[in-house]
Amino acid sequence: MAERPYIVGNWKMNGTRSMLAEARAIDRSSQRLMKVEVALAPPFTLLHAVHREVEQIGVGAQDCHPGADGAHTGDISASMVSDAGAKFVILGHSERRQDHGETNTLIREKAEAALSAGMRVIMCCGETEAVRDEGKAESFVSRQLKASLPERIESVTDSLTIAYEPIWAIGTGRTPTVEDIEAMHRTIRTLLVDLFGAEEAEEVRILYGGSVNAENAKELLSADEVGGALVGGASLTAESFLGIVIAAA
Ligand code: PEP
Questions:
Q1: What pLDDT digit, counting tens, does each position of 184-242 carry?
Q2: What CATH number has the domain bearing residue 137?
Q3: Where are the beta strands (DSSP E) in the chain?
Q4: Which residues bind substrate (predicted)?
């Protein structure tokens, strides 16, 4: 397990103000677990409220527009989410790629906007089940990541986190084997070293995401090169999310 694992909850399209109590409970308990870095990505509508509610944990957004401002009805820019309290943005999530047709090029532009606004990027990547069955998961993920990441990133270690999330494991209760996760994370590390140089890339945390829960977290987090977890469903209550945070401590 990484020295200070990073456990990030992605609330997706869940949560109204009644969920602020969960954020508060997660924050209070995380204060006692300094060995773990904990963060939440609530929906836009709760971003500022969660930011005001918590003291210890990080708060981030689930998306941002690549542009600075202007006539983009319904969109939210990087500087807006930063102003609302976001310290990072999750980008490249498979649900945005699928539901909104987001391409690698668009994701790269969004990443550039988020970095320019002074936020960290959690860049997601992952293969479909068909790609894995064909034995092409690692080459697919390498290509996807290379095309989604900005070419130049200042202070890569502080600005970038990768989340490997096999699409077939998201919300399904299925997870890859520890060996498969380790192989993929090694492939991602090699790519990061190629792109950004060993000194910076060695320290970038590579999270695993896909059906992580309190029961399987210890095993998944013990895999080589796994620097933490991106958690969907199990981040929606303080009880289930804290079970993962405790397993990481
Ligand atoms: C996710 O979508 O980022 C995710 C990991 O979801 P879940 O934990 O529900 O599989």
A1: 999 999 999 999 999 999 999 999 999 999 999 999 999 999 999 999 999 999 999 99
A2: 3.20.20.70
A3: 6-10, 37-41, 58-61, 88-91, 120-125, 160-164, 205-209, 228-231
A4: 10-12, 171, 211, 232-233
pTM of the model: 0.97
Tell the residue nearest (CA) to atom 6 of ligand 1.
232
Distance CA 122, CA 61 (A): 10
In this structure, is residue 1 part of a structural domain? Answer: no
Judge if ipTM > 0.90. Answer: yes
207 closest CA partner among 21, 32, 41, 27? 41
**Active site includes 165?**
yes
CA distances from 4 to 44, 204, 207, 249 (A): 27, 12, 12, 8
249 burial (CB, 10 Å; 0-12 / 13-18 / 19+) is middle
The phi, psi pair for 149, rounded to 5°, reads -85, 140
- Work out the angle at residue 87's Cα, subtended by the Cα atoms of residues 176 and 231, and round it to the nearest 5 degrees: 20
The answer to whether position 66 is within a domain reads yes
Domain around 232: 6-248
Is 207 within a domain? Answer: yes
Question: Hey, how many other C-beta atoms are within 10 angstroms of the C-beta on 34?
Answer: 11
Residue 169 domain-assigned (yes or no) = yes
What does the angle CA 179 – CA 185 – CA 189 come to, to the nearest 5 degrees?
Answer: 145
> In this structure, which residue's CA is closest to atom 7 in ligand 1?
232
Total domains in the fold of the chain? 1
With a Cβ cut-off of 6 Å, ligand 1 is lined by 10, 165, 170-171, 209-212, 230-234
